[in-house]
Amino acid sequence: MPSPEAIRVARIISRKTPPPSPFPSSHLPKNPTPQPTQKTPSHSTTAWSLSFYPQPVLNLRRRSTTGTTPAFPFINTLGFLSYFLSTLTFYASPLIRAQYAARNPTAPTPTVRLNDLVFTIHAVVMSTLTWTMAKTSESGARCGGLRRGVF
User: Fold this and answer.
1) 20 to 30 A Cα–Cα from 122, which one of 11, 28, 53, 66?
2) Low-confidence residues of the chain, pLDDT below 50?
3) Interatomic CA distance for residues 29 and 122, integer angstroms
């Protein structure tokens, strides 16, 4: 015989509508207004994009990656690759967009835009470049140019 908790969970899963929120709705506005959509990349997106350049530029100027560990750029690359896949599926999947609209009737349009997707591609490329520069330097090669960082 299934436990009462298992029965309750099965009933929640089989519902067509989402379960009621365990949080009180008293803090929510009565008539929520949708947030304005952002049509251009924000200043923070630009700042984050520019933040990828100092390390590779420094490596190329010094022609060395001394002091740079390959671990951080590698983990950064994995993180941005995961972020890219998440952003891509949220941006391009009609199923996920429909699920989002069903769960958020007051603001059915997801906030993921093309500039988010472009940023994640840029982040993956720049993180990979920095990682390969540090990795080739770790193996004994000096950072003699951009080609060394990519290959």
Assistant:
1) 66
2) 143-151
3) 38
Surface-to-core class of residue 68, CB atoms within 10 Å of its CB (0-12 exposed, 13-18 middle, 19+ buried): buried
Q: What is the C-alpha to C-alpha distance for residues 116 and 96, in angstroms, rounded to an integer? A: 17
Q: Which two tokens stand for residue 62?
A: 């010094």
- Residue 78 CA to chain centroid, in angstroms? 11
Q: What are the percentages of helix, strand and coil residues in the chain, rounded to 5?
A: 60, 0, 40
pTM above 0.70, yes or no: no
| DSSP letter for each residue of 107-131 | S-S-S--HHHHHHHHHHHHHHHHHH
Cβ-based burial of 7 (10 A; exposed 0-12, middle 13-18, buried ≥19) = exposed
